[in-house]
């Protein structure tokens, strides 16, 4: 492996990073590991793959800088495979190093736990000496080997703080090891592809070179097969047989029917269909991944690639040559990661609410890269609808809240602050609902902003909140404002009078006469009916800018804005007359109700609302003393 095989210029690096990121987003909810494995399987260039591995490793370990170096097995020279976060100056100095591959024979990993020995110390010295000059401190140095054990690369994690150990915690060790393993798989695949490309070129140039090509491929873990379609026979190379655990002499029959018996029953039909499509020239080549039975009875995942190399004059296929590669390790990692993704997806779909991933591109385009099934409950939309058209979601948000919704997201993106918002939606079936959204943003290398968040329905919470607010200000029995709320309104009215000297306001204190006697004679239930009856009479006499409140057991207070004392006296007499004209009849019994009233004018000289209320209360006391069912006017101050 040489450095000229790996493009590492900054423009290409940016393009590669964008490619990997966009692949991850477009395939949500698959993990980055799955996408990297898919990149290797698709044949993405080694340079792009290594850059994707290094970038994803750094994303998982925010304190670390990751570098993947390529080793020339003959000279020991070092070339840069991928190092997205390291400076060109430092990378140039690393390229000048030469490491003897023999040093790595007994070294598997160098970190804070590695025992001291000559080989490890020499490797430490090479890396630490150059890195520290650039304020970099290697914390993990691991060899990257091919299947045959040969050293082809070095995986290094750096820290920029000499006192900060970035060695991954126990729960992340497996993740770092998987990145190293993915690097080895990518390099193994690159070596295999190079050998296969060379072998296939030689095969096309000369039929006589077939066996020499087979020998070159044998050591790569790839086998060759040669199918004589007209005779219905197939021959396998020794390397092909070795993949399944067979010796060269174990498979004697060349009949194609026997080869089909080795296929997994669930894969047989689509393998035959893929071959037939190629025979019928519907595809340029035959490529399929499937399971095949090994000598010990177990099944192994392989990748088969082939092509018809000769046909008769009618286009009927005569001969087909191909290769088989063992992809069990890649499939095992992919299956394990897919199980994790499936588990996480199932969990998010079970949560009562919307779990989502939202992305804003530098161009201003915005979209959901993942939404859970809870989107149907929150917005009455399906996941695929939201993913394809953001405007459908905006149409659900209450028009009065949409501007605030958009601006709050913009502020979160600019300052990378958590997004939190309570807003309304209007849904076709559920109608008006309240939602609460929260999300944590982070900036991606391409300048995009990515939010991971959760939206829940808080309609019931809002209803309870409103009820609690009402309970705090409303008298339960009469549904009038309570004393606390009424006094607050009086303070507001006093402040208005002091701002506008010409304003006139009257305060009335009303007390039901002989209310205790009514309770004792008829019971508290009847007493409650009397209070509600009187509250209704008072409320019916008020104008829009007036207010009445229950300030005691049978005491009620009234604010009459912009009225004189004489007008307030007229109001009080009208209330008394209405009581007389609207007697309360309970179970055939007539309940006699009268009311005493004290009236006071609010003054700019009043120090507080209590002062004027006290004057009206004194006037009420005189009305009681003078025989009840009377109206008394307090002296002005």
Quick structural gist:
With 637 residues, the chain is of the alpha+beta class.
Tell me the structural class.
alpha+beta
- Radius of gyration, Cα only, in angstroms? 42 Å
Morphology call: elongated
- Beta strand count: 21
Helix content: 40-55%
Quick check: average pLDDT? 83
From the N-terminal CA to the C-terminal CA, the straight-line distance is: 101 Å
What is the overall number of helices? Answer: 21
The fraction of residues in strands falls at 15-25%
Reported for the largest beta sheet, the result is: 5 strands, antiparallel
* Poorly predicted tracts of residues: 1-30
What does this entry look like structurally?
By secondary structure, this protein is α+β, with helices and mostly antiparallel strands. The protein contains 21 helices and 21 strands. A hairpin with a 4-residue loop joins β16 (547-550) and β17. The longest helix has 36 residues, at 170-205. It starts with 9 loop residues before the first helix and ends with a strand.
Please render the helix and strand layout as text.
Layout: H1 10-26, H2 32-42, H3 46-60, E1 65-71, E2 78-82, H4 88-95, H5 118-132, E3 137-145, E4 151-159, H6 170-205, H7 210-218, E5 222-228, E6 233-236, H8 238-243, H9 256-261, H10 268-279, E7 286-293, E8 299-311, E9 317-326, H11 328-350, E10 354-360, E11 366-371, H12 375-379, H13 383-388, H14 390-396, H15 399-415, E12 419-427, E13 431-443, E14 449-457, H16 459-473, H17 483-499, E15 505-512, H18 515-522, H19 524-541, E16 547-550, E17 555-561, H20 565-581, E18 584-586, E19 589-591, E20 595-601, H21 609-625, E21 631-633
Helix pairs in contact: 1-2, 1-3, 2-3, 2-6, 3-6, 6-7, 18-19, 19-20
């Amino acid at each position: 492996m040489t450095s000229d095989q790996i493009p590492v210029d900054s423009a290409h690096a940016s393009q590669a990073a964008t490619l990997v990121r966009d692949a991850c987003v477009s395939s949500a909810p698959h993990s980055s590991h799955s996408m990297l494995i898919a990149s290797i399987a698709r044949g993405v260039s080694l340079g792009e793959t290594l850059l994707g591995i290094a970038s994803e490793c750094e994303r998982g370990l925010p304190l670390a800088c990751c570098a993947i170096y390529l080793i020339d097995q003959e000279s020991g020279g070092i070339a840069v495979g991928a190092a997205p976060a390291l400076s060109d100056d430092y990378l140039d100095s690393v390229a000048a190093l030469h490491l003897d591959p023999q040093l790595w024979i007994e070294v598997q990993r160098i970190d804070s736990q590695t025992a001291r020995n000559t080989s490890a110390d020499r490797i430490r010295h090479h890396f630490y000496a150059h890195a520290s000059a650039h304020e970099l401190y290697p914390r993990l140095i691991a060899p990257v080997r091919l299947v045959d054990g040969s050293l082809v690369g070095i995986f290094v994690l750096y820290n920029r703080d000499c006192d900060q150990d970035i060695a991954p915690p126990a729960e992340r060790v497996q993740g770092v090891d998987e990145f190293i393993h993915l690097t080895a798989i990518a390099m193994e695949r690159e070596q295999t592809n190079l050998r296969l490309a060379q072998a296939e070129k030689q095969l096309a140039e000369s039929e006589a070179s077939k066996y020499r090509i087979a020998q070159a491929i044998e050591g790569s873990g790839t086998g060759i097969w040669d199918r004589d379609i007209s005779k219905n026979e197939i021959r396998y190379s020794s390397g092909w047989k070795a993949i399944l655990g067979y010796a060269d002499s174990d498979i004697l029959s060349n009949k194609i029917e026997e080869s089909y018996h080795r296929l997994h029953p669930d894969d047989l039909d689509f393998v035959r269909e893929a071959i037939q499509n190629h025979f019928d020239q519907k595809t340029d080549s035959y490529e399929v991944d499937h399971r095949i039975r090994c000598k010990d009875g177990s099944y192994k995942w392989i990748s088969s690639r082939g092509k018809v190399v000769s046909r008769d004059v009618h286009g009927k296929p005569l001969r087909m040559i191909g290769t088989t590669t063992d992809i069990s390790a890649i499939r095992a990692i992919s299956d394990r990661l897919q199980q994790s993704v499936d588990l996480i997806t199932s969990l998010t779909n079970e949560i009562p609410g919307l779990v989502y991933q939202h992305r804003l591109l530098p161009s201003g385009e915005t979209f959901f890269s993942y939404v859970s099934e809870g989107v149907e409950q929150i917005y009455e939309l399906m996941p695929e609808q939201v993913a394809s058209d953001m405007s459908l979601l905006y149409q659900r948000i209450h028009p009065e809240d949409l501007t605030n919704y958009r601006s709050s997201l913009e502020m979160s993106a600019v300052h990378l602050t958590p997004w939190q918002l309570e807003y309304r939606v209007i849904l076709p079936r559920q109608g008006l609902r309240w939602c609460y959204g929260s999300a944590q943003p982070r900036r991606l290398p391409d300048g995009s902003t990515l939010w991971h968040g959760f939206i829940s329905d808080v309609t019931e919470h809002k209803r309870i909140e409103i009820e609690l607010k009402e309970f705090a200000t409303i008298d339960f029995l009469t549904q009038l404002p309570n004393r606390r709320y009424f006094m607050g309104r009086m303070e507001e009215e006093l402040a208005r009078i002091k701002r506008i000297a010409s304003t006139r306001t009257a305060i009335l204190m009303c007390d039901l006469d002989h209310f205790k006697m009514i309770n004792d004679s008829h019971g508290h239930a009847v007493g409650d009916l009397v209070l509600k009856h009187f509250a209704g009479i008072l409320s019916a006499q008020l104008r829009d800018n007036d207010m009445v409140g229950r300030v005691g057991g049978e005491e009620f207070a009234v604010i009459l804005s912009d009225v004189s004392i004489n007008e307030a006296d007229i109001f009080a007499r009208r209330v008394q007359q209405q009581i007389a004209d609207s007697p309360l009849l309970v179970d055939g019994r007539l309940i006699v109700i009268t009311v005493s009233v004290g009236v006071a004018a609010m003054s700019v000289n009043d120090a507080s609302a209590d002062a004027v209320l006290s004057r009206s209360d004194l006037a009420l006391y005189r009305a009681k003393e003078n025989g009840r069912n009377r109206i008394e006017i307090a002296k002005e101050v």
